[in-house]
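I am still getting used to C-alpha cells and would like to learn alongside you. To get us started, please write out a protein record for me. Once you have written the record down, we can walk along the chain together.
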Amino acid sequence: MAGSRVAVVTGANQGIGFATVKELCRTFDGSVYLTSRNENLGRTAVEELEKLGLRPKYHQLDIDDESSVLRLRDYLKATYGGLDILVNNAAMLILAKDEDSRELFAENTRSVVQTNFFNTFRVCNILFPLLRPHARVVNLSSSMGHISQIEGQSEAATTLRATFSSPDLSYEELLKLMNDFLDAVKRGDHADYGWPRKNWVSYIASKIAVSAMTRIQQRDFDVDPREDIIINHVHPGYVNTKMASFKGVLTIEQGAAAPSWLAMLPPNDVTNPKGAYVWHDKTIVDWVKGPLPAEY
C-alpha cells in the first residue's frame, strides 16, 4: 500500500469529524482514517459508516497524548509512505460559569487551550513531514476564532489584534502570546491585555491561535520544496453537536461541507483559498478585517 493516497480526520467518532469522514469516503480516491481517542467509540462509528456501504479505516489517536500521535505517524509512514489529507478537527470546549473560582477557571482554560491549540500544533509538527506534494490540510477554527472576537478600541485590544494578525507573526511569538494569556488568566487580569471577559474566552483564544497558526503554516508551505501544499482554516457553522449542547441549527453533514471541500481542493491550480479563513458556506472571509457574514 506504500504510495497509496491516505486521509486522516482527527476527533472523528462523532459530529463534524464523523460527517467529514463520511463525505471523504464518498469523494476521496484513497484510504480514509477515522480516528478517535476512545477506540471503542471509534470502531462503533466505523461500523455505522460501513452500514451505509462506506469503507473507512480506523486508527486510535488522542491528540493530548504525544505517544499516540507518534504511533499514528509511524503507522502512516510504514503503511503509506506519506499523507495526503489531514483534517484537524479534534477539539474541546469547557464553558466557564460565573460562579467558577479563579483557580477552576484557570485550570479549565488551560485544558481548552492545551488541546485546541498547543496539541493541535504538536500534531502538525509531527505529521507535516509526511505530507506529500499536493497535500491538503484543514484546521477547524470557528466564528469565535475570528480576530474581531478581540473586541474594543483600547490600546491593549488594538495591540493584541495587531500582533496576532501581523503577516510576520512567528511560531515563537504565537506560543508566547498563548502562554502569556494563560498566565494572565491564572492571575485574573487577562482583560487588561485586551482579551474579552466572556465566559467562552478560552475557546475564543484557542481558535484565534489556531487561525493565526494556519496563516503561518501556509507561509511555510509557500516556500516548501514539496509542491502545492495548501492549508486553510474554517468556521463550520453552528452545528448540532454535543459540543454545541445539540442546540446548533446545521446538521453535521452541513457542518462538514466546507471542511470536506477544502480537503478535496484540486491539485496545481488553486490560488484561493490558500491559507484562508473560510465560512461554512464556502465564502472566503478576511480574517483580519472581516466583516463576518451573517451566520445563516
Q: What stands out?
A: The radius of gyration is 18 Å.
